[in-house]
Amino acid sequence: MDPTLAVRDALAAGARAALVSVTRIEGEPPSREGMRFAFVEGGRTHGTLGCDGFDRSAAADASRAIASGTRLERTYDWDEASRIHVEVRPFARGDAVPDTVAPAELLIVGGGPVTRALVALAKTLGFRVRVAGRERGEDARDADESLHVADAPALGAIPVGPETYVVIAGHDEEFSQPALRALLASHAPYLGMMGSRRHTGHLLEELRAAGHPAESLARVHTPIGLDIGAQTPEEVALATLAHIVAIRRGRTGAPLA
What is the pLDDT of residue 139? Predict the structure, then answer.
């Protein structure tokens, strides 16, 4: 059975399951990007990642992901020069199972020093990075894609899916706040906007009064990032991406001990 269908059938029957998807390959392993392997609690498996060794590792990691309810990213070696990178994603009843493997990406709106720091660190963490703004500049030089938008409402036309994490950088309230409003209708799991509570607190109240549901506003984070006392652009980028990783993994960002 197709791995995706197997997971959907398992969820419909009340069981938990996990999909292991090949997101990247190095060298010449017996695999290819997009291959999927399904593991249903109880031990049933469907599909393959290209060889028995990869499948055994995938089954073990899928069992761990189901038990913890946490996404995992793993690397399985074939030889010294070849390996595959996989995402292990657990599902429970009621979860939507995507048809394709969508890489995690960061959409940064606006420019400035924090944008440059976010681009550099997000690329290091393996995110696909897009930068959107009213001007094309050096801030997006190292991004995967630079997008020009005439105004904030135009951001609503940019494809934003459930694996797109959004950061609205800069302190231009005349652009950043309308940008947030334009992106609220998207499926982004994280909508972060720079700014102090003094400057952004009223916006959340206005959005509530406008009828935006609580579950939609729960995706909005302003100020952005975990509380690490960030001061420099690089520290702000670190705090922001740490929060995004925690949300993507279903964690709180609290200390481990």
Answer: 80
Residue 205: exposed, middle, or buried by beta-carbon count in 10 A (0-12, 13-18, 19+)?
exposed
CA dihedral (221, 226, 231, 232) positive or negative: negative
- 53 in helix, strand or coil? helix
Alpha-carbon gap, residue 20 to 197, rounded angstroms: 40
Provide the residue ranges of all domains of the chain, joining segments of one domain with +.
3-91, 105-248
pLDDT given at position 59: 97
Please give the pLDDT value at position 136. 67
Measured CA to CA, the distance from residue 158 to residue 106 in angstroms comes to 13
Q: The domain at 105-248 falls in which architecture? A: 3-Layer(aba) Sandwich (3.40)
Rounded to two decimals, what is the model's pTM? 0.75
CB 20 within 8 A of CB 46: no
- Residue-level pLDDT at 134: 82
Residue 229, φ and ψ in degrees, nearest 5: 75, 30
Three-state DSSP class for residue 94: coil
Block means of pLDDT (10 residues each) for the chain, 257 residues, are 93 95 93 94 95 97 94 94 94 87 88 94 92 81 90 90 90 80 90 79 76 84 92 95 90 83
Q: How far lies 122's CA from each of 85, 104, 131, 132, in Å?
A: 17, 10, 12, 15
User: What b/e sequence results for 148-164 when a residue is b if at least 16 CB atoms lie within 10 Å of its CB, and e otherwise?
Assistant: ebeebeebeebebeebb
DSSP at 230? -
